[in-house]
Automatic annotation (TrEMBL), chains A, B:
Source species: uncultured Thiotrichaceae bacterium
Name of protein: Arginine biosynthesis bifunctional protein ArgJ
Subunit composition and interactions: Heterotetramer of two alpha and two beta chains.
CDD domains registered for this protein in UniProt: OAT
Residues at the site labelled Involved in the stabilization of negative charge on the oxyanion by the formation of the oxyanion hole: 120-121
InterPro entries assigned to the protein according to its UniProt record, in alphabetical order: Arg_biosynth_ArgJ, ArgJ-like_dom_sf, ArgJ_beta_C
Domain of life: Bacteria
């Protein structure tokens, strides 16, 4: 019954393009036994950096420190380790995160608050500081411009595949490059935390604008995916702009730049769902004609998080009673179910609250058997639409999450 | 790896006591192939009836009709079928529910709106009305006072065991009896819906007071349990008071009566969790010193619903990072994690946000290996406490819910 974990329609990234002004080193610090686990990213002077972070109240030490450093000054280095999340580690965890930044600063002649720290892996264990001490000098001397594919592989934890994408576009006659990588497989893994994503461009983007761009892109990508409703203590998404292409992002070209960043973030976010823990399906929940965006998201997540919907998806069972249940169970007070229509792919299940006349179990079965499934819910009570992406709930999900430490 | 579904520390009910003024018939109407599936309950004239129902917007036809009938007049009969939920059945489903009530009314010489209908089972299929037509006359002529154990068995769907409890107490020198039965195994089952519970007493309780009593009892019992966060379209809890004992519930004895009803409801609700789909653990989430009751429940349910906490419970893995994550992921804005303390049973994990000094993995393992586990979360920011009960997330849960129709 158990099947091998395999991502849904996702291959490893093609050659990721170097981004002028970024330099990467990837090495095995020994946090894991037998693989690379540490990435150092250097940024050209004058780069701007923006970020969005987990809203979990128990956010990990590196997240707290990273947010503080971003506020204080311009950033020159990012230090990312896999294998240990430095979360739930109390005040010693914070001291260790600070020490990591100091080590990078000493090796690179910058200030400690110009270094942004990121950790992903086991929660509740202190970082092995001796290993960082040994590895950081080595990392600082092996920075290389063309190292994004290695970085994508180095930051993964329980992911089954590296995730990344590159894009080029023309801004005012100049070619700019955008390269992004991400990791994550559940919102939080066994004991392993986290979604991490890093997107770099050689466009020149003023700090405030860059923050705006990343927040907008997050809303329709990383904030519209869910594997299991659980939110990691370490989630971080960073957008870096080195300016090395000379192309400046301004009011006249911001729309197309935003669009490109959106596309990169959507790819990276969807890749996490396609590689979701135990995922056998890639599912789009498409809510239309809601009263407002918040209502649309409430309904979409109620369906996306429902264990009974997710097990039906795993079973390829057109069990539409569970969809009704999940749409109806939110606390939206005046939802009129007699207006709601439902589709599985192009097959209509429900028309204004009544079972659709032409629906047959065989038609539903046909849609549910697909690897990529769209559930569309029309509320007929407004003009807000939203899309959320999720995976199914399989035996493999339980196996991964129940048996990880055994 | 898969194990046989077995409830956690729950045996079938002992002999349930008859409640003077209630009469029950249980028979096989043929909705299921080879078991009893229909219960008719008659109530003595002058009985009062109160109810609480699912808040799911897609509530089933019988629920809508039952609520209307309860408003309109005094109730004399309850008709309960297993095997078909009459949910997601549109206007024909409502017609069928009405017809069921009319059939009972014709056989018993009462009005159709004195009949309360309940259905549990498959969603999205119309009731087999010919079977009701054949069975209802038979039910009306076979009502018997001492039939509660049979009723408890007849209303179950995917439950592995019948659930019930009886209690007697002294009210002003008179003995009153309380007998309750319940069914449910997920908040909603495969394709099968629902938690149903019926509690009867021969005390005399005025209608409004009775409604008050059942709402208070629900808050600390049925509204404090969760298997999978999914809310059925058919959930119903009914409290009936026949008054046949002659003991009248008044201001002077309401407290002890409320306490007895609370205990009966808590037993029936916890029995549902102990028989939860695939449950191998019975878990109490005990949140203390929250700012208010709502905040306490938000935190408790965040932990109780977390798939990662639930898979760790299944694995008996003291993976306390997941508990931190689940406490932290709610949207309570000013939660100070440096005040939070956490215990597994009597073993402290976290003291005011720092890892507890004496904690060892072996101690955590010892607690997690138990069949009954208490997770205590002290927020140190107020005086509100709450308890929520839940089960774990096992292979069996996925098997039951993914493979039911195959």
């Amino acid at each position: 019954m158990l099947q091998l974990a395999m991502p849904v329609n996702l291959a490893p990234p093609d050659k990721l393009l170097p981004v002028p002004g970024t330099y990467l080193a990837c090495l095995a610090a020994g946090i894991y036994k037998d693989r690379r686990d540490l990435v150092l990213i250097g940024l050209a002077e004058g780069s701007t950096v923006a970020g969005v972070f987990t809203k979990n109240a128990f956010c990990a030490a590196p997240v707290t420190l990273c947010k503080a450093h971003l506020q204080e000054t311009g950033s020159r280095y990012l230090l990312i380790n896999a294998g240990n999340a430095n979360a739930g580690t109390g005040s010693q965890g914070m001291d260790n995160a600070r020490l990591c930044c100091q080590m990078v600063a000493e090796q690179t002649a910058c200030e400690a608050n110009q270094v942004l720290p990121f950790s992903t892996g086991v929660i509740g264990e202190q970082l092995p500081m001796d290993k960082f001490e040994a590895a950081i000098p080595q990392a600082a001397t092996s920075l290389s411009a063309d190292n994004w594919n290695d970085a994508a592989e180095t930051i993964i934890t329980t992911d089954t595949i590296a995730k990344g994408i590159s894009k080029q576009m023309n801004i005012g006659g100049q070619t700019i490059t955008i390269t992004g990588i991400s990791k994550g497989s559940g919102m939080i893994n066994p004991n392993m935390a986290t979604m991490l994503a890093y997107v770099a461009t050689d466009a020149k983007v003023e700090s405030k604008l860059l923050q705006n761009v990343i927040e907008q892109a997050t809303d329709m990508s990383f904030n519209a995916i869910t594997v299991d409703s659980d939110t990691s203590t370490n989630d971080s998404l960073i957008l870096m702009a080195t300016g090395q292409s000379g192309a400046m992002i301004t009011d006249s070209n911001i729309a197309e730049f935003q669009q490109a960043i959106n596309e990169v973030c959507l790819h990276l976010a969807q890749a996490i769902i396609r590689d979701g823990e135990g995922a056998t399906k890639f599912v789009t929940i498409d809510v239309t004609e809601a009263k407002d965006e918040a209502e649309a998201k409430t309904i979409a997540y109620s369906v996306a998080h429902s264990p009974l919907v997710k097990t039906a998806l795993f079973a390829s069972d057109p069990n539409w009673g569970r969809l009704l249940m999940a749409v109806g169970k939110t606390d939206i007070v005046d939802l009129d179910v007699n207006k709601i229509s439902l589709w599985l792919g192009k097959t209509q299940l429900l028309e204004s609250g009544e079972p659709a006349a032409n629906y047959t179990e065989a038609l539903g079965q046909l849609e549910m058997a697909k690897e990529e499934i769209t559930i569309r819910i029309n509320l007929a009570r407004g003009s807000a639409n939203t899309k959320v992406w999720t995976s199914d709930l399989s035996h493999e999900y339980v196996r991964i999450n129940a048996e990880y430490r055994s």
